[in-house]
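Reader question, answered in our methods column.
A reader sent in the components of a multi-part assembly and asked whether the whole thing could be modeled at once rather than chain by chain. We filled in our standard form and ran it. Here is what they sent:
COMPLEX SIZE: three components
ENTRIES:
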Amino acid sequence: MLDSPTMTAIKLWGSVFSGFGALGLGMSLLLGGLLSACESKRAEPAAGTATTSASPSPSTPEPEPKPGPAPAAPGPVKIGLIAPFSGPFAGAGKQIEGGVRAWLDQHGGKVAGREIELLVKDVTGVAPDVAKSLAQGLIVRDKVDFLAGFVLTPNALAVAPLATEAKKPMVIMNAATSVITTKSPYVVRVSFTLPQVSAPLASWAAKNGIKSVYTLVSDYAPGADAEGQFKKTFEAAGGKIVDSLRVPVQNPDFAPYIQRIKDKKPQAVFIFVPAGAQGTAFLKAFQERGLSKQGIRVLATGDVTEDQELDAMGDAALGVVTTHHYSAAHDSPENTAFKQAFSKVTGGKVRANFMAVGGYDGMAAIAQVIEKLGGQIDGDRAMEAFKGLQLQSPRGPIRIDPETRDVIQTVYVRKVEQRPDGFYNVEFDHFDEQKDPGK
Amino acid sequence: MSFLGVVFDGIAYGSLLFLISVGLSITLGLMNVVNLAHGAFAMFGGYCSVWLTTTWGLPFLWTLPCVCLAGAGVGALAERLLYQRLYRASHLDQVLLTIGLTFMAVAAATFFWGPTQQRVELPDFLRGQVSVLGLDLGAYRSFLIGVVVLISLGLRGLIERTRFGAQLRAAVDNQQVSAGLGIPVQRVFCLAFALGSALAALGGALGIELLGLEPSFALEYLVYFLLVVSVGGAGSVRGTAFAALALGLCDVAGKYYVPQIGAFIIYALMIVLLMLFPAGLQGRRA
Amino acid sequence: MRGVPKSVRDLSFWLLPVAGFFAFPDYLVLGSQMLIAGLFALSLDLCLGYAGIVSLGHASFFGVGAYTAGLLALHGWHEPLTGLCVASLAAALAGLATSFLVVDRQGLTRLMVTLGVGFLLHELANRASSITGGTDGLSSLELDPVLGLFRFELSGKVAYLYAGGVAFLAFVFVRRVVRSPFGLSLQGVRENAARMPALGVPVRRRLIAAYTLAAALAGVAGALNAQTTGFVGLETLGFERSASVLIMLVLGGAGRLQGAFLGSALFLVAQHLLSEQSPAFWQFWLGGLVVALSFFARGGLLGALDALLGSLRRRGLAPAGGAGAGP
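And here is the structure of the entire assembly that came back:
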């Protein structure tokens, strides 16, 4: 029975309902429109020279034609950079981006006649699902030629299957776990692995009269990697690991652990903790308790005294012996030029560290591959070009192992010293042609 | 001998926890507001101290009273503008507002100071170790314990001997009756919140040496403060002190004697204590 | 409510994801994450919006579901649907086990307990790295095609439809539950737990049941995440995830089922947009939004819409009758 009030109600409600539905659809379409509009805008969160294709770089003689309406030239080479730019790892992302832009600045933003277009995406931290979503967007929507970046291992591991499926080269510019390069034949790494830098430290210690070592690492996968490799190499060289400690990753106070170390009186302590506050906390507690006065030496991987944080660590870090692949104090013309370019594109506020070099060398490697391929990018041929690639990096000479697609480089033994312009890791020994022992 | 060293370290750590958490305990007990932004107030104090030492060249010890004042000011402002509206709100709304504030604080800290950690220059007499009765005790830790003991005594005096303290205790026990007796409850709230924030800020500044200072401080250590307050009982200074010391000692002792357990201890202990004492060790609100 | 039946009204919301599938074929991976987050928020809604248990550790069950599904896939059981069921069961068991800690407490204590359980599980998963892979997580998970026919591929179409289908079924199920006497008694407990025994309602048992059910659903969401991403890491258990799902739920409106999905969609879209424009400020604006929400829009988006409709109704611009979306 449809009496008049009911009819009115149906009509009114129907109109409200369809209004709601329309609103909802409208919202989603609006959002979609916003999304696609924003996709076409190339965001540049860091200050620096505009080397992306949105506006022509001042150093290029003439602008490249934009992609889209049937261009005669092939358009820019697109590189998707996935790294954290917010949250606790924000510094890492900025370093990597700074390194990439430093290279671009030095080379006018072009390779083999094509512009380089950098698409920077914030993965916000340890967020494998976000990483995967970003990578998928880069591959499917933006049609990038290369995926790059990757500071954190879980993010890299989540994206690797996508690289395989889409046949896109994936350049790891920082993540340091051995297993990453085995996850896809399209992964190549230009940074380092923790076992790669821990093994030489153990060798050096054994050669230099250190017989007993106490290891202390943060209780997570990189810590376990570092500890495992150090132990293996050190014991093989005849040394003795007095004891091992695993501390919680976010550990406010090292006092009880330092006390245990003091009790055992080793000749040296090998530590691995996340760069930054943890390293400083440990070294300060170490100094405060007088362990350095007792003659116990501190050995660490270079992450602990990395260049960006070193000045803030100050006196507590003096005399710490570390091994790593890059130091800002490395004396070479490439390093000087790199540091200058980095300073230029980032505003000169932070010191370039090993992550920036990872970005720089990753970009250099990609550029070499583009040139070898004559500007015609194809996933499989690009991977062939990556294998055996050699670079004279700001860190020293590096090359990519053709079998594992991982980096082979010189690992330096350094000591923290105070110079007029700050604290630096000064290199005094080195181990050439180090491969990743984890494979 | 190392047992005493462990006890000393535990007390130092516990003292720091107490200093920062006591404000939260007062706030929660008094106003029944779950203030998850408390870590942000502590962090604010830390960054104030850093700013004063680096930009203004003030010696570290002089920054401490300044930081207290700044903390009190910000606390009073926040209470008047924001927290006042939450007194009658549900716990969910309070959680939301304060988490939102914390996120904003973390982002602001990253913006102004960058994501790396900060440090302060300690005066020479606070570095290294002092020898007390044959034991080597950390100089800074001794200083910390001393400061906290003084503050606790002062706080106790304030709460038990002054008029304001009496008003505070009355308002914690029963807000409505207190108001009915003519106690200016709103003013008491504001002052109490300011006091709690001042102490948190001081704790944040003092904690730079021990805990470090990064933008993520506000969220990372929040758990510890909440832990201390929920175990000790909201609204009770003594309960907070016991809880802070207990947790500090257990954490340090656990890490020393059984390091394999490490991070578990503090969480497992918290759950156990909360199951046994739902209102906290000396809670005033069930 | 005259005219259109309530069920049609409530379910018509699902036209949006269907429209999205066709309107945004390039964003389906983001879309499936929205659906999974929506399901997760829905499970929290059951716990928080209906039973009134504020939990800052709900990600524990998401993580348990994710790791269960991940471990199954890693050790040879590649079938996704049964994996989903097993994961849900595991999460339900975890929920049941921890519910005893949670239902007897109130306020801050309960909040802390949920927080503590979350951190404990996180630490446990970190420790048991031989099983869980620790910080590296479980990667390269391979799954058989859904129903033997639809393989997960790059464009994310199958993942989207799979997640969407499961989320839809879960939505229908939860809607049934909250409109049942059980669900109504939950709302009664939330409003005034002291009075419910007078009605013959066993409060404690209801809360345990609600918490366990919420855990089971969270486990389904976690398993979906593991299966569609092919990866499980520690952050599935972390505090960040618990906090963000809470925000998503409140953004959309707690206590109203669609609010969970709306809030998640809004949150993820905003994150996607903002993190491109100004990565460092994403957190700031999110914080500001949450603060504003707690002041002005306590019912979230749907609550605001309701208020709008209410004021329109008062001015005679809308028909009188039942409330807007929601039971």
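What stands out: Chain B has one domain: 2-276. Residues 2-31 of chain B form the longest helix (30 residues).
Send us your own complexes using the same form.
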